Amino acid sequence: MLTHRAGVVGSPVEHSLSPVLHRAAYDALGLTGWSYDRFRIGGEGELDLPTFVEGLGRDWVGLSVTMPDKEDALALAVAVTEQARRIGAANTLVRREDGWVAANTDPDGVRDALLEAGVGDVRRALVLGSGATARSALDALARLGCRHVGFAVRSRVRPETLDLAEELGVRATAQVEGWEGDVLLDDPAAVSRACAAADVVVSTLPAGAPLGEEAGFDPSADLSRTVLLDAVYADWPTPLARWAEACGATVVPGSAMLLHQAAGQVELMTGHTAPLDAMRRALDDALRNRERCS
């Protein structure tokens, strides 16, 4: 008998590995009667998030929220965590008696993935993109001590991202050796130099973005002192990851970020410490199965 229900919402959502992670956590914690499923909402012609949430029964305890529903999740909540407020988006909704609480565990996912890779204090960083995930990366980098962050963008850095940088005390147009100010993504030589000059590079760009050697990035760039985290976890390694690794970087897969943000969601929804090892094993198995099927 189901006693607690949770799930992931977004559009598209079929590719999401959140069910693998959350179900593994429930099994490891001995939480019988708990379920976790995918629900495609928020796209064109699809049910919107407020309508979906309004129809949920009292057995629903939480939702993982992906694009394009993260801002709607923030708006419908009766309370918002400080971290979600800073980011301006929520990836988690948790049920309480008077409504839903909006939270965002993405910054913790970025921070913990970098810490696990051996990153300590960060002096200078480069973030590819400037949307909600980039703000999560910015928040995580600030907590790792970074005070100089440059952005590689298609045209200009989003104003809300610059506002967050100011709130966090981060210089958002970092002038460091290798680049000054922001970098345009259509200038692969400049992006290559900026990556080489950074201690940490976080790519928040979607799968399929033109990146790496195939997009003209410098194959002779020296990234031996750089850690790259690519938020994409499907079809690994990405072209960007292949280029960075060939140039000597320490590369962190997006699956590490996915694991740690999901651990935060499990703790918020269940009240238990996330069984990280069990979740990691389940994720690794799922990724290997995808590779075999592709």
Structure characterization notes:
Residues 8-93 form the Shikimate dehydrogenase substrate binding N-terminal domain. It holds the Pfam family Shikimate_dh_N. There is one protein chain. By secondary structure, this protein is of the alpha/beta class. The chain has helices spanning 18-29, 49-54, 70-76, 82-87, 106-116, 132-143, 159-168, 188-197, 239-246, 254-270, 276-293; strands at residues 4-10, 34-40, 60-65, 79-80, 92-96, 99-103, 124-128, 148-153, 175-176, 179-180, 183-184, 200-203, 227-230, 250-252. It folds into 2 domains: 4-104 and 256-293, Rossmann fold (3-Layer(aba) Sandwich); 107-252, Rossmann fold (3-Layer(aba) Sandwich), CATH 3.40.50. The chain contains 11 helices and 14 strands. The strands form 3 sheets. The chain has a 6-stranded mixed β-sheet, sandwiched between helices. The longest helix is centred in the last third of the chain and has 18 residues, at 276-293. The protein is globular, with a radius of gyration of 19 Å.
